[in-house]
Amino acid sequence: MERNLQLTALVMRVLGWGLIPALFALIFLYPHGFAWGIEAGTQWHPYLWMMLALYLAWCYLLVREAKNPAAAGLLFDFGIVSSILHALVMIVQTIMMWEHEMPHMWADIPLLFLIVIVLWRCHPKRTVSEPVSE
Question: Which residue in 33, 126, 112, 125 sits closest to 79, CA to CA?
Answer without folding.
Answer: 112
